[in-house]
Structures are given as C-alpha cells and as structure tokens.
Amino acid sequence: xxxxxxxxxxxxxxxxxxxxxxxxxxxxxxxxxxxxxxxxxxxxxxxxxxxxxxxxxxxxxxxxxxxxxxxxxxxxxxxxxxxxxxxxxxxxxxxxxxxxxxxxxxxxxxxxxxxxxxxxxxxxxxxxxxxxxxxxxxxxxxxxxxxxxxxxxxxxxxxxxxxxxxxxxxxxxxxxxxxxxxxxxxxxxxxxxxxxxxxxxxxxxxxxxxxxxxxx
Length: 216
Known about the structure:
Blueprint: H1 9-12, H2 16-31, H3 34-41, E1 42-45, E2 48-51, E3 54-57, E4 63-69, H4 73-84, E5 90-95, E6 105-108, H5 116-130, E7 136-143, H6 146-149, H7 154-167, H8 174-183, E8 200-206, H9 211-214
Parallel strand pairs: 4-5, 4-7, 5-6, 7-8
Antiparallel strand pairs: 1-2, 2-3
Helix pairs in contact: 3-4
C-alpha cells in the first residue's frame, strides 16, 4: 500500500504506465517536502548549527531571528523550531495558514492578491529586521508565493491588487510583474539599504521561487 503524499495513489494507478508516472510525481513531491528538506539539511549539535554541512557557532550571536514568507514558510517554521527550540529569540513568517509554533509568530496572508492581512505580517517582519544588528543571526525562509505574501504598507497592497488585476490582461508574465512589485515595496529588497544593517543571512529556499528574489 502506498503511503506517500498522493492519497488516492492506488485509485489512480490503474495501469503500469500510470503507476510509473505517479511514482515519478511522488518522488518529486517528496523531494520538495518542506519539513523533510529542513530535517535533512539542518542539524544542531550542542551550540553548532549545521546547514548542508556548513557549521555556524550560535554562541557568536546575540539573537537568533527567523523570518519567512511564502506558501511553505509556516511548515518550515514548525520544522526549524523543533530543531532550534528556545535558541530562537524571535521570529515572524507569513504563509497561507497560521502554525502552532512557540517562538516564531506566524501570520495568515492572502495569495495571489495581497491584502491588509499581508501588511500586518509585513510590518512585524520589517520591525524585526530593522531592530537587528550585526550581532544577530537572521535565518530567512523563502518559498513560492512570497512575492504576493510579503507586503508592507497599505499603499503597497493597494497597488499590488491593481497590478494583479490589470497586468495579466496586458499579456505580461509573472517575472515582469514581480519586477514591478519589487520597486513598489519596502520589504522586497529584503536587506534594504535604508536599514543599514550588516547581518549574516542564511536564506533557505523551498520549491521554485520567483525570479525577482533570486536577482536581489
């Protein structure tokens, strides 16, 4: 019996070829499973955090902060909190759902259109980052959908709504829309020059993330 992410696998796998196709899909889904990626990529040994084998001595940092945005960021926050626990000073992530976390505050936002809910989470993330210093370690959890979920300021979400409603009618693609989103946003530059912060950023990507963030 199949126990993977495709719940109706047996129902769908009615021919050998279908079964092979479903197994390929299942392998792909397992490879991008957020909690699995976190647990296989990150390990804490005493005060040393290993990310893909690279060590980070947590004793060197005054605060450990977690921020995240995207459809998988809530699941990532759950998994990361289980590893770091009380070592996390503070955190904020915005996703499509809230999560049962103790040290990282999670917010529910809207996607694909931004809304006022997104700006509430965005303000929390902005305040957390702008209150950071070079003595802090900030771990950033990024996943698909973050370009809409990460939103700060009422002006940005209102412009974002109009942008979404009108942009695709013009025949433009998501990469082009995200280029404009970046330029109307305070937060989408992530480490904004206006913040004047020198931090060690550990950016963890999940799924295929929007090109705009890869270019920042």
